[in-house]
Amino acid sequence: MRHSLHLTFMCLSLLTGRMCIQGNQFNIKASRSDKLSLPGFENLTAGYNKFLRPNFGGEPVQIALTLDIASISSISESNMDYTATIYLRQRWTDQRLVFEGNKSFTLDARLVEFLWVPDTYIVESKKSFLHEVTVGNRLIRLFSNGTVLYALRITTTVACNMDLSKYPMDTQTCKLQLESWGYDGNDVEFSWLRGNDSVRGLENLRLAQYTIQQYFTLATRSQQETGNYTRLVLQFELQRNVLYFILETYVPSTFLVVLSWVSFWISLDSVPARTCIGEGKGSGRSQHH
């Protein structure tokens, strides 16, 4: 009996050890398969270092940008900011990613972790986030000449200094500025791909309180303690709609004032009537505010 139990224990030990070895081999294969391997050019990224920019030590990387403004959801005078959802597209050339043929490949967005990408950020942004439903809203596309297209869908809240001295007949100028966080002008140069035509969507926006009068793009330099950086600027003017405030503010206020005059034609002895008018004015003011 003891001999049988001993043999059974030895067999289980050998079987468990074999399963562990096979599991380790499977994990090794899985970890190897995690490396960037593209059909038709498996050796494309051999020796590729994602921590070094293209043409490291040489000429700066030329990055061309385009913007699609999907929406401007809110403009706050109290916080002096606006919230917008944008599609940011960046293009640059990485000679390490050149391959034969004339095709382009759209890759799974998670493969962006294996490639060098610019560290672009939104200047004066209070908070921003990348949309993640149903997956991270990113696109990475490779072209045979080494051009990389990197697209993102971002919602951001950006500061906008406003002059409210002429409220509600004012016009505000807001900006959306893009810049590299760590690479100065010796490493990265930003430019608009097609000038003013690089920005789309603003002309189609319909806002309740504002009308977008005009917008334009420009490229400037930002001198900071850590270096001289290229900064791309989208500047747009917002003219407040006076009709909106006439209907939302002035007309209700006028009706409340006219209603208050009715009390002068009511007899002093009609206390209930005067009380009802006073309560009506009070509730009207509270609902208006």
Relevant terms:
GABA-gated chloride ion channel activity, glycoprotein, 12 strands, Acetylcholine Binding Protein, Chain: A, 289 residues, elongated, 4-stranded antiparallel beta sheet, alpha+beta, 24% helix, 2 domains
Secondary structure topology:
Blueprint: H1 2-33, E1 61-76, E2 81-93, E3 104-107, E4 120-123, E5 125-130, E6 138-143, E7 147-159, E8 171-180, E9 188-192, E10 199-200, E11 210-224, E12 227-240, H2 242-261, H3 271-288
Parallel strand pairs: 1-9, 1-10
Antiparallel strand pairs: 1-2, 2-7, 3-6, 4-8, 5-7, 6-7, 8-12, 11-12
Helix pairs in contact: 2-3
Subcellular location: Apical cell membrane
Subunit structure: Heteropentamer, formed by a combination of alpha (GABRA1-6), beta (GABRB1-3), gamma (GABRG1-3), delta (GABRD), epsilon (GABRE), rho (GABRR1-3), pi (GABRP) and theta (GABRQ) chains, each subunit exhibiting distinct physiological and pharmacological properties.
Signal peptide: 1-23
Brief overview:
With 289 residues, the chain is α+β, with helices and mostly antiparallel strands. It has 2 domains: 61-240, Neurotransmitter-gated ion-channel ligand-binding domain (Acetylcholine Binding Protein, Chain: A); 246-288.
